[in-house]
Write a structure and sequence with these properties.
With 165 residues, this protein is α/β, with parallel strands linked by helices. It has four helices and nine strands, in the order E-E-E-E-E-E-H-E-H-H-H-E-E. It is 18% helix and 33% strand. Strand 8 and strand 9 form a beta hairpin. It starts with a strand and ends with a strand.
């Protein structure tokens, strides 16, 4: 059986079977905003998900006011939760993002802070994410933990591969 693969922020040159982008390119299968919309796939659907040169465009925090009340949302955390939810057990998440400040900061569409190795650690059980009574779960809702498979810096990019247990 052919693996099911999703490319988030796919752009015009992806050859993966499922592709999400805000712009309709020739092979885009889902035109949507993955920053604010949940992934339109069932649980445990994908064998692999790729997020290449996209996480740096995802804000850390969004506030808004509705009916006189303030709300907040953590889009990076929500996207990582959605990747975890839609990956099969043993599935791989590949993330590539710039981490060196001059290269990260030069693009006016990059937001907030870079997505760094210590950031990824939150999604791998670090900083209390393994303990329901600890900070990462209680404050941020990070109630899942990927397993580190690979982390390397290639030029000014960090490339990581995580696995859903």
């Amino acid at each position: 059986m052919k693996p099911k693969r999703l490319d988030i922020g796919a752009g015009a040159h992806s050859d993966w079977e499922y592709q999400i982008d805000q712009v309709k390119f020739e092979r885009t299968t889902h035109v949507m905003d993955a920053v604010i919309e949940p992934l339109p796939f069932e649980d445990n659907f994908f064998d692999e998900i790729r997020i290449s040169q996209f996480m740096e465009h995802v804000p850390v925090l969004i506030y808004w006011k509705e009916n006189g009340k303030f709300y907040k949302k953590y889009p990076r955390i929500d996207l990582m939760k959605e990747c975890y939810r839609t990956l099969k057990s043993g599935g791989l998440l590949h993330i590539s993002t710039p981490v060196e400040f001059p290269y990260w900061a030069q693009d006016p569409t990059h937001v907030d802070v870079p997505f760094l190795p210590d950031t990824v650690e939150y999604f791998c059980g670090g900083w209390g994410a393994k303990d329901p009574e600890d900070f990462a779960q209680k404050s941020y809702g990070i109630n899942f933990a990927f397993k580190w498979v690979k982390r390397e810096q290639v030029g000014f990019n960090m490339d990581v591969t995580l696995q859903k247990p």
